[in-house]
Amino acid sequence: MKHVHTPINFRENAITALQDKALRKALRKAMDLFIMARAVGVSGTPLETWREKASAIRMRVLDDLPAYLDTFSANATKAGAVVYRAKDAQTANDIVFNILKDRGARRIVKSKSMVTEEIGLNEYLLSRDMSVVETDLGEYIVQLAGEPPSHILGPALHKDRQQIGRLFQQKLGVRYTEDVSELIKIARNELRTEFFRADAGISGANFAVSDSGSLVIFTNEGNGRMVTTLPPLHVAVLSIEKMIPSLSDLPTFIRLLPRSASGQTLSSYMSVITGTRKLGELTGAKELHIVLVDNGRFKILAGECREILKCIRCSACLNICPVYRVVGGHAYGSTYPGPMGVVLTTLLNGMDEAHSLLDATTLCGACAEVCPVQVPLPKLLSTLREKRVIDGFTPAGERAAMSVLALAMKVPAVFNLGQIALRFVWPLLQGTVANGRFSGIDPPAKKNFRRRVS
Question: Of 297, 312, 332, which closes a domain?
């Protein structure tokens, strides 16, 4: 099965999302909670010092990524793991499938991993008659619903408890309930069985430590530890930029990642996995295979938007983004939503497929203010928007309108004439041409600013 991308139509997706009142309500509640929690979490901390240090660490990795990858691979191998390099999604999927097939593993449990969503690993394995069960509660919910995640941290935050209750009733054959504790118990009972009968566990990783060959995984539900220790076989799939130089660098990210993601001082669980189960140890996989996925990242590394690879997937930029807050993750039509998703998806998928995503930003700069590793997202978004224009991917009507505006800005007489004409043309634009899309915008003032102050 060849992994292919399809063109994204953000404008149509956004219009559909804006008409979904339940979605808007769920997003407003979740985003407000995340923002307030982060504000409390970072209060009283030397946040800017931490951000500068984290950014410097990430840049150090990007400046010498091939060397860090080689060192990580050598140290992970010494610790008992088997390390693979995958240049693209197809190669990564083939590697994982062959590892599982060669060991007769057909029942797989997974912890949350964005890169496996990116490469379509679940669909690939399911098409080859393997059972793949997501064990993060949010991921489990959207898997039952047949939907992709809508948020990096909260994959199912677009659903309310009534929707989840009906989903569990339909898919699991249980009594309907909308009690949150009861819904959690239902999921726990279902997943416990899957953990104990699994042949293999598949995880991602938040970080990979170069000088020790270790994987670092943050979770809040404990499912990550179950996936990586109960089955005899553990396959970790992670993108190449997840490297950090050493374990001494990890405390910086332990402080920043949970606070930026959910406002927590610490995640509930943090696992550092170095190699396979050792003699005398009671838990841990007997086999560990690590798949390092490029899938276009080395190409990004060589370009002017390379700083997007500093991103640590905390989701802070999603939570603060005024666009994401009203349309949600599914409107982006890609694995990665929000400001970081717009940049990363455009770079990974190409301008011809993802150019419409560049409409999904106001360039307000809030994303850069909350980013824990100082990714200059507004700068990257502006760079890609400029490239979209140069490459000819803006709509013809928009190009014509901007040409007229440019002319008006250069010639004051034309600008003044346009202001006068707009007062008469506005009713037509509002009611007929734009099909009501301007209904929320105030009409032009009868007396413009220049006339008021003259």
Answer: 297
